[in-house]
Write a structure and sequence with these properties.
- This protein is of the alpha+beta class and about 300 residues long.
- The protein is built from nine helices and ten strands.
- It starts with a strand and ends in a 9-residue tail after the last helix.
- The relative contact order is 0.13.
Length: about 300
């Protein structure tokens, strides 16, 4: 009996506003009340390309026209959709937040789904109060010594167990570990504590992939400038980077990194703030041809 396979297109549309990274979501899915990404099936008869199909779905579902998009990953695990086997080609797009022209679609903070990833106000309490105890129990429940060591290594790498460094780019790996031990609602493992808000299907896994991609790319490409207006202040730039990275940065060091890299130039204009007027700067497109990487080497 032939297997019914569908090709879907999913969009992670990202923006930063009010110092919060946000993702565009719509209602629907399974259950129907869960947030879902703009998505729909690829139509080989009407969609000339996968990109064109994705843009069509975002326009139809959210009333937004996308600029630059990039392919994120293809998701095809069994069980993603209870109705049939679905291969989803996910895309990532950066926009400046605007009000969707469809009332049911809106912006939600990324950390609404991943509260353990936001370290801007310090180490999240749920890391030590919920995640680490649950991970310790999962390690202790390993069937043998080899598996226990494997779990220990994985936990140290992904969730900073035993005082190891928390790697902020391993968003997907952390989500998958929490899924495996039953700490997120999408997990098939029954558990009493579910962290973060659930999403339809495996859309939270897709968003986790996007967040990890963004955090890694901050270091080598100028994607942050796609989320800012043409003219901005250094404080705006720093807060946007902090929002995506999920941690605070040392202001003098940050400014020196940006200026030494030649990523910005002054506009000659100023903006009145609550304190002293702030100089407006803009991205230097020439920077992309002057050096192999044009990201911000945040530390």
């Amino acid at each position: 009996m032939p297997i019914d396979i569908a090709v879907a297109l999913d969009a992670v549309v990202a923006a930063v506003s009010d110092d919060e990274p946000r993702v565009l979501v719509r209602p629907g899915g399974d259950p129907a009340s869960d947030d879902a990404l703009p998505a729909g099936p690829f139509d080989p008869e009407t969609d000339a390309t996968l990109d064109a199909g994705l843009r069509r779905w975002v326009t139809e579902q959210a009333g937004l026209e996308l600029g630059h998009i990039e392919q994120l990953y293809t998701f095809g695990d069994r069980g993603r959709d209870a109705r049939r086997r679905v291969l989803s080609v996910a895309y990532l797009a950066f926009v400046r937040e605007s009000e969707p022209r469809v009332a049911s679609v809106g912006w939600r903070a990324w950390y609404h789904y991943f509260p353990w990833e936001d370290w801007r106000d310090g180490r999240p309490a749920i890391v030590d109060e919920v995640i680490h105890p649950a991970v310790d129990a999962w390690i202790a429940a390993a069937p043998d010594a080899d598996e226990r060591r494997r779990r220990e290594r994985r936990a140290r790498r992904t969730v900073g167990l035993r005082g190891t460094v928390w790697n902020d780019t391993l968003v997907l790996e952390r989500y998958e570990l929490l899924w495996e031990i039953g700490l997120v609602a999408e997990s098939p493992i029954p558990g009493g504590v579910h962290l973060g808000e659930r999403m339809a299907f495996d859309h939270r896994r897709i968003v986790a992939t996007a967040l990890g991609r963004v955090r890694g790319a901050l270091r080598w490409r100028p994607l942050v400038f796609e989320l800012l207006p043409p003219d901005f202040t250094m404080a705006q730039l720093q807060k946007t980077v902090e929002a995506l990275a999920g941690r605070r940065l040392h202001t003098p060091n940050f400014r020196r990194l940006v200026e030494d890299a030649g990523l910005i130039e002054p506009t000659g204009a100023w903006r009145q703030t609550t304190g002293r007027p702030a100089a407006l700067v803009r991205f230097r497109p020439e920077a992309t041809t002057e050096r192999p990487d044009t990201g911000i080497a945040i530390r």
